[in-house]
Amino acid sequence: MFKFVILIALNFATTHQQLNSNLKCSLITTTNLKCQTTTIEEINLISPSLRNQIENLEFDFYNSTYLNFTLMQESFPYLNNLTISRGLLSKIDGFGSETTKLEVLRLNKLPIRNLKESFLGSLKQLKVLDLRNNSFHCLHEEKLLKLFRLESIYLSANPWNCSNNLAWIYNAKDLNNLKDINSTLCHKEPFDNKKLLYVATLKHNTSQSCPNNCSCFLTTVTFNAETNKLHPVVQVNCTKKNFISLPETLPKHTTKLVLNNNSIEDLSPLIRNSYYNDVTDLFLDYNQIRSIEVLEGTDWLRHFRILSLKGNFLTDVPTYAMTNALNQNPNVPNAVMLYLSENPWKCTCSFTPNFQKHILVEYGLLIQDLNQIKCAQVKGDPNSLQSIIQLSIQKMCHTPPAYTEKALNLLNGVLGLMILLVLGNLCYDYYSFKKTGKLPWIATKLP
Description:
By secondary structure, the chain is an alpha/beta fold. It contains 15 helices and 15 strands. Helix 11 (about 320-330) runs parallel beside helix 12. The chain starts with a helix and ends with a helix.
């Protein structure tokens, strides 16, 4: 037994001597080789007899941007476990052969961004793929399918771009082999530090519930400090899609709805349809809207952020209801925007003064097209197509000048005096009749 141990020790010592002294490699065991600041081409200087024994190979800082996997396999035909941590490696080329025995591949802390499908497909015996802490932005769904046979996949700590199509991860969400899926996060805005699978699921659900002919996007996910929950923000765009009414359904969490250039008249779904509960930004430019009275006193009008009604058929708005709603709106003044131009506003004394004073002047900072809000085109009307904010209310309503007012006051005084004289005369005639029995002179002349 003692001789056997001596023989093993002598063999291990001989193996150590076979390592090139210029290489920063060391044998951990007779089958485990660890190298620092080197490449596959350099360790090929090790004798073939030693390389044929290696089952586990670890690079601590791979000192090249390129790895030829075909050469790797030829150099280490019995390699079972390959780990490359840190270094310059950004590209892996070559293929595994039918005899490839590699079961574990770890690529960590590298600038590598992509792996060829042909390379992954050639690793028939692979069970564990660890791609943590690299520079991967996305994987194609077909590429992930190549990995379904694996027992364990690790993808976290990569700069995953969640603005891209995430179908590849959504379709793999039920696979138990994605071991670190709950710690795999999106990188950079608009989804920075949000779970990759969570964003992928939201995107999928948004797409599936999108109205026909419309485009639906998950634009961001914000954190609501009041509810301590994440708040998805979905945008729906149905511009020029021949809608005659607001869509009956919307994706969950729809915040921004764009319905420009359609034929919509009725706004009642905003207050009756629960799909519109989260809609705060509404764009209805160039439709057939003639009134917004249906929104008077509604919760929606008290909480909206953007309301764009350019190019419709509005002639007036309920001024009091609008001012009351804006006074109660918590988004005023920082987040509210109004667009009201290109409507045939009526310019009359009954509407314009209040509209100008209480809407255009008082909330002018919220109105993005203030100077383009104009009177309707009316032939012969001097206010036709004039900017309402610049109108002189005095001139429009013909307020009398000061001298006219004095004349009217004098006339009122004269009329009042004449009334007193008539009443006095009536009293005199009554007194005379009671005393003498004679009728007043004017009464004797009546037929």
